Amino acid sequence: MLPGMFSRVIGMKQNFPVTTNEATFPQGTKLVSSTDLKGVITHCNQAFIDISGFTKEELLGKSHNIVRHPDMPPEAFAAMWGYLKAGKPWMGLVKNRCKNGDFYWVSAYITPVTENGNIVGYESVRSCPARADVARAEKLYARVREGKSLGVAGYMPAASTWFLLVVFVLAAVLFYLGAPLGSELLLAAGTLGYALWKKVESSRMRQSVMQLMGNSFSDDLAAISYTDDNLELGRIKVAVLAQQAHLNAVLTRLGECADQVRAESLQGMDIALQAQQTLGEQQQETGRVSGAIGEMSSTIAEVSANVQDTAEKSEQARSFASSGSAVIEGTRVAIDNLNSTVRDISESVNELAGETQVIAEATKIIEVIAEQTNLLALNAAIEAARAGEHGRGFAVVAEEVRNLAQRTQNSTREIHAIIESLTQRAERSVQVAADGNAAAETGLQRVLEAEETLHQIQSSVAHIAQMAMQMAAAVEEQSQVSDQINGQVAQISNLAARNLEEGEESTASAQRMGSIANELNELVVRFK
Length: 528
Known about the structure:
Residues 444-489 form the T-SNARE coiled-coil homology domain. By secondary structure, the chain is an alpha+beta fold. The protein has helices at 46-52, 56-59, 78-85, 131-145, 159-177, 181-212, 220-226, 231-387, 392-527, and strands spanning 31-36, 41-44, 90-97, 103-115, 118-127. It has 2 domains: 3-232, PAS domain (Beta-Lactamase, 2-Layer Sandwich); 271-374 and 435-526, Helix Hairpins, CATH 1.10.287.950. The chain is built from 9 helices and 5 strands, in the order E-E-H-H-H-E-E-E-H-H-H-H-H-H. It has a 5-stranded antiparallel sheet, with helices on both faces. It is rod-shaped and about 220 Å long.
């Protein structure tokens, strides 16, 4: 039991169930609990939870009074307070209450918990008491509840007292039988000397035993509770029992710590194994990622080369488009000049046609004159024939004139035919010039359209070239980033390998810790 449940309460109201049923627990089981200075439970083991009937949640954070039984008199723990306040352990028999009202007896060993020399709480390790000890404790606590004294005068006297009583009886018998007074005095002196020597020897033995056991617990009430022997021997037995209880408490706590260490080591080993497996998988994944990044770097290099080639081809296409644009510009100028020339030819042909028409008109006039001249020559020849000899020379002249007129008429016909042919050719030339002009106009329009298309192509190619350059720069940057990522992944892979080695070391360490915990547990079992 702990101090928080031993506060002095007189006339305490019982507002919880109490039965006459006793709950028991195995001999080797230890009930462990800890409280702060105010008696609030901060720790309890499963055995204490099981026997109390409460849940762990119902116990932690609650006052230890929750398991106090009303049959326990507060006066029974006055000595306990003295020991605990002095920073010393206390041992005693305590009756506790279960949640359902049943009760159970424990042999409690309570020690102060110190930090930096200051008491910060209390820890109790309880074991199953012997039935004889329980019977004595029930009688003692009943006397307290009845208001009777806990004095020890009524308990069995020391052996020297019995010896003195026997000597007194022998002296009385000798006196009754008429023995000399000297014999009686000698017997009495010897008896007193022996009793004194026995007393001193017993006290010296007790002190020697107590010194050997160090600062061991020894209390008259505990001596009465735990033994039927006289006080001297009872104190020694209680001191031994307290040492055993102290050792059991230490071993119990060591056992609990060993169990916790073993549980933690098992959990740590499981975690380490899982971490080791995860690190192995991570290392494999990192290797695959590194390979993928390497392939990506190669692909990026190929893409970079292709983009660079595309940029160069785009620049060449832009140059070709510029050259084509210049050629089309020259073609447009040439067609424009041709169109102008065709227009000039058309105009010249039209002018020639006009001049030819004038010539044709003049030829018609000449033809008319030739016909009239021919008629005049014919009339002159007729008149010369009428004149006879006198008109013969005139007839010759008239004949020549008529012949000249006929030749002129024939020439005018030929000229007329030539002019007619020339006029037709001029008209065809005008038509051809018109067709050529129309074709030149159409060609010029096509050239202009081609020039516009080439300008658009040139602009598009320039845009493609610019985008290709930007893509090349981006791919180059991506390649650098990929190299950095590859380096980082390699570093991560190295770290994963190192973590894997550390995980293996951690697993081995957890296994060693588990072995140490098992050895510690075996030591605890060996020394219990």
